[in-house]
Amino acid sequence: MKEMAALTAAFAAHLARPKSPPASPRLAPEVIRQSLGELISESVQARVVPLMDDLRKTVEEHLREQTEGMYEGLLKRLSEVGLGAPEAAGGNQVSPAV
User: Fold this and answer.
1) Where are the alpha helices (DSSP H) in 25-95?
2) What are the residue ranges spanned by the domains of the chain?
3) Structure pTM?
4) Angle at 92 between CA 74 and CA 69, to 5 degrees
5) How far from 17 is each of 10, 14, 21, 32, 74, CA to CA, in Å?
6) Rounded to whole angstroms, how far apart are CA atoms 60 and 50?
7) Left (φ > 0), alpha (ψ -120 to 50) or beta: where does 20 sit?
8) pLDDT of residue 95
């Protein structure tokens, strides 16, 4: 009998509690994409473009330095064997083979 009274009391308490509000409607993924797509694209572009510009400048500078170093080394080696520019080889020029 005590079990029946406990079950009745639990059921009455369950019925007396406030009802939960209905679940909010879900937005379709397409609606979210349309709403946020342009904003996300602009935000990514605003952050990525400056990074890419900095990367391009860094690579260009690195390549310029490497190219200058390569030409300096090449001219030094050519001057050592007498084939360098006139000012680098002391004015000696090799005449072209005819």
Assistant:
1) 29-80
2) 50-80
3) 0.45
4) 15
5) 11, 6, 12, 35, 89
6) 15
7) beta
8) 47
- Give the type of residue at 58: T
**Distance from C-alpha of 90 to C-alpha of 78, rounded to nearest angstrom:** 12
Q: Determine the Cα–Cα distance for residues 12 and 62; give it in Å rounded to an integer.
A: 79
Chain-centre distance for alpha carbon 25:
35
Q: From first to last of its 98 residues, what are the pLDDT tens digits of the chain?
A: 888 889 899 988 888 888 887 777 888 888 888 888 888 889 999 999 999 999 999 999 999 999 999 999 999 988 888 876 555 444 444 444 54
Which amino acid, one-letter code, is at 68?
E
Give the chain's length.
98
Cβ atoms within 10 Å of 88's Cβ, excluding its own: 15
In terms of Cα–Cα distance, which of 65, 85, 90 is closest to 75?
Answer: 85
